[in-house]
Amino acid sequence: MHFVVADDDCRDFQSVLEFIGRRWVGAVLMAGAQGARRFTEYRALAPGISDRLLAQRLKELESYQLLRREVIPSTPVQILYTPSPTGAALIAALQPLIAWSRSVPPAGGDQRP
């Protein structure tokens, strides 16, 4: 199989892969895909992530316009994070990769849980 890909496309694709490959970015994106909206819901769906790193990843995903941040003026103030249309498109584009990852042995020969 042979694919023709322009150099600019390779660079753009590489930068996207580097971003989504950063620690916890994928888990936070998938938590949003599973319906997380509040900080605590994201934390519950990404067990092991620290509050500081989760806050950082949410801000980064918002800055890349992959998540939308909505402030609800209530007592206490609620902040909701939901996938943006761009984020939803990325999540949809990742679905074949997620399916593929289930079909290959884990790196290092580790067993899947």
Task: Map the helices and strands.
Blueprint lengths: L6 H14 L4 H9 L5 H7 L5 H13 L3 E6 L5 E6 L1 H19 L10
Antiparallel strand pairs: 1-2
Helix pairs in contact: 2-3
Gross CATH architecture: Orthogonal Bundle
Q: Helical residue percent? A: 40-55%
Structural class: mainly alpha
Shape: globular
What is the CATH superfamily classification? Winged helix-like DNA-binding domain superfamily/Winged helix DNA-binding domain
The averaged pLDDT comes out at 90
What is the total domain count? 1
- Report the biggest beta sheet as strand number plus sense, adding barrel if it closes: 2 strands, antiparallel
Number of strands: 2
Pfam family, one: HxlR
Domain HTH hxlR-type: 10-109
Organism: Paractinoplanes atraurantiacus
Keywords: DNA-binding, Transcription, Transcription regulation
Describe the structure.
There is one protein chain. With 113 residues, the chain is mainly alpha-helical. The protein has a single domain (8-102), classed as Winged helix-like DNA-binding domain superfamily/Winged helix DNA-binding domain (Arc Repressor Mutant, subunit A), CATH 1.10.10.10. It has 5 helices and 2 strands; from the N terminus they run H-H-H-H-E-E-H. The chain has helices at 7-20, 25-33, 39-45, 51-63, 85-103; strands spanning 67-72, 78-83. A two-stranded antiparallel sheet has the order 1-2. Strand 1 and strand 2 form a beta hairpin. It starts with 6 loop residues before the first helix and ends in a 10-residue tail after the last helix. The model has no long low-confidence stretch (mean pLDDT 90).
